[in-house]
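Worked example 4.2. Below are the chains of a multi-component assembly; read each line carefully before continuing.
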Amino acid sequence: MRKLQAALVVVALMVVAAALSSCGSSGGKEGGTLTGSFASFPELDPNIAYTAEGLTAMYGTYLPLLTYAHADGEEGTEVVPALVENLPEISKDGKTYTMTLRKGLKYSDGAPVKASDFPASIERMLKLNSYGTPFYTDIVGAEEFAETKSGGIPGIEADDQSGKIVIRLTRPRGTFVQELALLYAAVLPAGTPAKNLTADPPPANGPYEIVEVEKGRGWSYTRNPQWEKSNAARIPEVPSGHVDKIDISVVRNSATQVNEIERDKADWMQTNVPADLYNKVKDRYEGTQFRVERPINIYFFWINVTRPPFDDLKVRQAVNYAVDSAALERIYSGALAAAHQVLPEGMPGHEPFNLYPHDMAKAKSLLEEADPPDREITVWTDNESPADEAGAYYANVLEELGFDVTLKTISADVYFQLISNPSTANLDTGWANWFSEYPHPNAYFEPNFSGESIGSTNLSNTDVPKLNEKIAKLGEEPLGSRQEDEYAAMDREVMELAPWVPYGTNTVSTFVSSEIELDDVIFNPIFGQDLTSFQLK
Amino acid sequence: MAHFAIRRLAGMIAVLFAVSVLVFAIFNVIPSADPARQLAGRSANPQLIASITKEWGFDDPLPRQYLTMMENILTGKVVSYETRENVDERIVEGIPATFSLCIGAAVIWMFFGILFGYLSAVRAGGLLDRALTVVAVTGISIPVFWLAAILLNYLTYRLELFPSGSYVPLTESPLEWANHLILPWVTLAVIFVGFYSRVLRSNMLDAMNEDYVRTARAKGLSERRVMTRHVLRNSLVPIVTLFGLDFGALLGGAIVVEGIFNINGIGQYAYESLINLDLPPIMAITLFGAFFIVLFNALVDIAYAYLDPRVKLGETAQ
Amino acid sequence: MDGRSPWYLAYRRLRHNRVALGFGALLAAIVVFVVAAPLWADHVAGTGPNATHTTERVEVDGEPREVVNREGEPVGPLWLGAGGKFFLGADGRLGRDEMVRLMYGGRTSLFIGVVAASITVLLATILGLLAGYYGGRIDGLIARALDVVWAFPVTLLGAALGLALATGGLGIGPLQISGESLWIPILIIGVVYTPYVTRPLRGQVLALREKEFVEAAVSQGSGPLRVMFGELLPNLLSTIIVFFAISVANTMLLESMLSFLGVGVQPPNTSWGTMIADGFELITSAPLLTVIPGAMLLLTVLSVNVFADGLRDALDPRAKLRLEAHAGKAEPEGTAI
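Applying the procedure described above to all three chains together yields the following structure tokens:
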């Protein structure tokens, strides 16, 4: 009898051991420290952060009511519930959103997450003049609050007892679900002071919390103890992390960052591998430590449709035929995925097409047909590489076409201000890019092609009443497959007007040391590399 | 003497004031860099810009804006337009790195500068002198940033003789601190070694013809004694003056060296702020640099007045 | 003392200084090199300094090669393999001819260096004469103004001005200079260096002013202009010449530093400084793009410095002149405010 018992115990132990060892995913080990580097020090305050670095830094730390799925590619553009139980119930008129907060959630300091923390966080965001403000001013009372910074926001009702949250909008807003999942709407404890807390970040409700911060030099994360205890089981949509600790340092020279990873002194760099080293690193490490990622962005040359010679459609089309994305691919050292339309791949509503395949002869003959009298144009670009070179290439192409070109290269930090200021002289055409804050096609069409956005982000000054109407109407409807089809059609319509010469998506790279499981790393198209997905070998 | 010192220091404050006004004026002359727009970022809407303008006081009359900025700088509350972080804090954080860089480089260039200058003067006209002169003249002709880039590429990246990676504080590991700073030190020192050795050489050559040297020789002192005791010592005095006056060039060199070698000091901060057209840090760093330049000048002048009575007399005679 | 003029004696001394002459010849060769830029561009390379060739191919020993490959890597030096095209290779992802750019860039660098140095010396002479001759209040005013400029770290001042003016250009009344014009860096550099040359010149004027021939002129009733330009200036000429030469070296270095930082020469103009900046982006994959313009700059500045030394030795062999323009060596008048 004893022998049998012993055997059973051994078998039981083996089963337990087997179960435990398969607890971690694909063979990597749990725990350990991840060391990473950023090229600049971001804002570490979720209601303020607006840069890619900030988003990557806080994706796993601060959760809004909803969040984006922790997945790559188009999956990662899906909105899923985070602090609330389900995606919002939207009323028939599109103006009321109802959700219920999950029970029992806690912040890293042990305080419970309450429904009233949500309106308090929105108020905080508005008080801080966050760049996210325009996304939330359709909430009843939000606009007045944004101006006066007092009086609360009547449009948000939150009941701490039941956890019910009701948001009322002044008009239907099709993009609101996506906007609720942005970091701007992260929920922080109600009393959090309305000032930039980068130096001493607020308590976290996600899997990691930010602990030490050395302004300008780096910061660290540890596991949020409350995540395992209270939140993890209740929020299955958000994974717990694998590593125990994450140390980030700011290394401003990207070549140095690459060097450190090659020597295994650092595990990961948030920054892109610089153009100079790109091909060397790609050749040596692709598949093992290096991977090309495709974020959602579009790089293009805008054309001012109100100024001659570009007020003639034929001229604009000629320019589209003249630009060769193969040349631009070289200028971007290969980190460019060619595209010839407004919506990039990965964006819902994207259907690939190319109305103007490169053909210099055709471009020239179109231009001859149009024969514009005014051939003097000014090309604008900024001085950051490779935008400066893309601009120089574009200027050259236009010269070859027969224009008399002046190239203006402007410092990157005033460039966009300058070209979006209607009083700047000679705004004919120039370089630009567009990254929407969230993956909804409206975020591409409305700011860039709606008559309402002229004078700020509509660089081409496109103003077609029928198009404006369509944009406004679609903008009120939440995203479904019918809307996606309509957006795909809108994409073609806009390109037929040729107000832009889109040339591609700037790809991004993930480069890790040999101690990291490359295949596990998730690259979310909005938030970048997902810190919860990093695992040591 | 005290009178002179006080006047000098008062003059110093006047100069700093003029410097601050000048920097402010330079940047407010740019028509297109509206700071409110800069703060508002890319998807700025007119409301946001208007509220920022009000909050930061950009529609105040210029003199008022100037006073506010100066007040902020002096009380340590300046906030950068670009990164919204506290400028003074970042400058203070950068001090250890920049001082490590500059002082280390200074030690190296003083040592080699004096050594080369001395040897050149003592063996004037000979082969050693010529060789050292070639080294010196080449040193002052090299563009600092180019040298930094070349050394970084060949010695750090290619041959991996030196660590890449940023500044390691002295308190963390003295060995690594020095290891990471060797190339930057050498880069920064090269120019000044050339310069100082030439100056010392010509000072010494002049001094060697002076009466007191002949007297010393007549007294039977050994050549070496004469050289080190008398000639060298007297030739060193103008070097000290030069040191203070060269601070401006040193800061310029520090900006590019810190940028290229990734040393998180004030120079790198200056470099980033220039690229970003960020006025508050540029103004603060310029004042910081100007403060040291002017302070050094004033101290040197006072020291001279103390050591050389002719200076004071010369002053009053004018 | 035989009847030869001091200038002839200086010339003789210079002629015997073989090292200085050697570097002077090198300098002349460099000047010829950059002046020949259009010749090379038109007849050998067949392209200008700004023309891009990103997707083109060039025939090397019968075989076509991509100027810029799909990964954005530029072709290296072809020397004479393609008949002189892309002699030093392509300059980066835009596929411009590096040799042509080197020559045109040299023109810009030398032009800016020489003209800026001229402005510096001109301003410094005028200010030095005024300050030294009149002394008193005028001297005080000028010295104070110079001290303010001096207090600025040179690079920061040049960079601040460069930034401010590069975007919007300069407009003083009827004079409008566009932000991309070369005159912006020229004026900035010329003005920024003025205090460093004014100080020693002023010191010299002060010393000369006490000499008898000046007193004689004054007692003869010569007006201030007469004295300044008739008596003082001729005695300053040798100093001025040497300072000019040294200034050229310094202005070229400052221009390259400012251009490297992006606040000097603006596109579409090129200088050796901008070329080093462009090359730096590709330093690990194509280091020659950084090495070559920098080496040219080094050689040029070195030649100027050695030649300046030769001039100084020739014009005043006792080397009394304190040439390191920073110094204002502790003259009895002190370096006071």
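Take a moment to check your reading of the output against the notes. Chain B touches chain A through 41 residues (CB under 8 Å). Residues 311-318 of chain B have pLDDT under 50 and may be disordered.
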